[in-house]
Design brief:
- By secondary structure, this protein is of the alpha/beta class.
- It folds into 2 domains: 92 residues, Urease, subunit C, domain 1 (Roll); 282 residues, Metal-dependent hydrolases (TIM Barrel, Alpha-Beta Barrel), CATH 3.20.20.140.
- It has 12 helices and 16 strands.
- The strands form 3 sheets. Strands 6-7-8-9-10-11-12-13 form an 8-stranded parallel β-sheet. A 4-stranded mixed β-sheet has the order 3-2-1-4, with no helix packed on it. The protein has a 4-stranded antiparallel β-sheet with strand order 5-14-15-16.
- Helix 4 links the parallel strand 8 and strand 9.
């Protein structure tokens, strides 16, 4: 069945979008000829945006819907990990409920692809992963998932190697780890286990790396050695990589050349409280740089709302990208889709009230409509959908 959207703003003009079986079948200048009786929606000049991808989130650990949890600054990572365990154990809702809550929020923000890290260790077992696998199935028609099995307490430190094998067998997509040097205190052993798991189960790799300066650089360098040896080019990522913002540009450039060669991605949450990778430099040198929301009202931070458009806005402001081409370039870090609809492409988009794409990054307007595979999955004004269903007896 074909559906239509009329008066969709793309660039300086209005267009009619036709879609069928989840793909665009026509993109035409709008002459307002769409009849009242046809299956159609009127965008009334709202701006077209592609849906977005959140490459680093934690569906299982937010506190949305819970009573307020007070936070205090904690001196070391191990102490914070203990505090996180205590807070998570005190939550009333279960992991499945939390994941559904955050996914619905993200969908309303126009996020349709995610990579979520899911806590795993011998104490927790696989309960979090089981819940996230279930919710992935529930949302399979609207959100595309990648799941990282994540030993938050340290792969070696928490003796999680055996349970990570079980996680791979259950359906996790990537092998995770955190600070092979700073937390596990065994860079070589940790990375050896990570890449052995990835090779054994044909999985990707995504390692949280907070370790600073040259300790972090050395870890990334060894990850690229392992990537090359395991022939995992294009399937490995370093999350955070704060160290890349704590060294000279020449040191960052030298490492960037290897990152590009081995196709190792850098994924940033765009922090404002510490150095971050030199995104303009890395991107200009051809490194795959992506961004994610990371913390959303959890034990680490009371901030965050799961909105990737807002995260793009933060990235642009952080690097003082104020020119039009710079603002447009921000989209590359949060979506692989074209900025304009094309016949044959997936019909995944959102509509907002903004003058143009640049203005949307700068102003972060609310999403008025979100469409996935040609189907409306969210609208700000529910009465619009109700009227449509009445007219077409859906």
């Amino acid at each position: 069945m074909k559906t239509h959207w009329k008066q969709v703003k793309i660039g300086e003009h209005l267009y009619r979008l036709e879609m069928e079986n989840g793909f665009f079948t026509a993109v035409e200048r709008d002459d307002s000829s769409l009849g009242i009786g046809e299956r159609g929606w009127n965008a009334k000049g709202l701006l077209y945006l592609p849906t977005l991808s959140d490459r680093h989130c934690h569906l299982d650990k937010h506190f949305i819907g819970e009573t307020w949890r007070s936070r205090t600054a904690i001196d070391t990572l191990p102490n914070h990990l203990r505090r996180e365990k205590e807070l998570l154990a005190s939550l009333q809702g279960d992991v499945l409920e939390r994941a559904r809550t955050l996914l619905n929020i993200m969908l309303r923000h126009g996020t349709t692809k995610i990579r979520t890290h899911v806590d795993i260790d011998p104490t927790l077992g696989l309960a979090h992963l089981e819940a996230i696998l279930q919710v992935r199935e529930e949302f399979k028609d609207s959100i595309e998932f990648e799941i990282v099995a994540f030993p938050q307490q340290g792969l070696i430190r928490s003796k999680s190697i055996d349970i990570m094998k079980e996680a791979m067998q259950m359906g996790a997509d990537l092998v995770g780890a955190v600070d092979p040097g700073g937390l596990d205190h065994q860079i070589e052993s940790c990375l050896a286990h990570v890449f052995e798991l990835a090779t054994q189960f044909n999985k990707g790799v995504d390692v949280h790396l907070h370790d600073p300066g040259h300790l972090g650089l050395y870890t990334i360098d060894r990850m690229m050695d392992k990537t090359e040896q395991a022939r995992l080019q294009g399937r490995v990522a370093v999350s955070h990589a704060y160290c890349l913002g704590q060294v000279t540009e020449s040191e960052s450039r030298e490492l960037a050349e290897r990152l590009k060669e081995q196709r190792v991605a850098i994924i940033s949450n765009v922090p404002i409280d510490r150095p971050m990778p030199n995104v303009p430099q890395l991107a200009a040198l051809g490194v795959d740089v992506q961004i994610g929301t990371d913390n959303v009202l959890d034990s680490w931070s009371p901030f965050g709302d799961g909105d990737m458009l807002r995260r793009m806005n933060r990235l642009a402001e952080r690097f003082q990208w104020i020119e039009d081409d710079q603002l447009l370039g921000t989209y590359r870090f949060a979506t692989k889709q074209s900025l304009v609809p094309r016949v044959g492409a997936p019909a995944d988009f959102m509509l907002v009230s903004a003058m143009n794409l640049e203005h949307a990054v700068a102003s972060v307007p609310p999403r008025e409509f979100v469409v996935v595979a040609g189907k409306l999955v969210y609208e700000k004004e529910q009465k619009v959908r109700a009227a449509y269903e009445r007219n077409h007896q859906l």
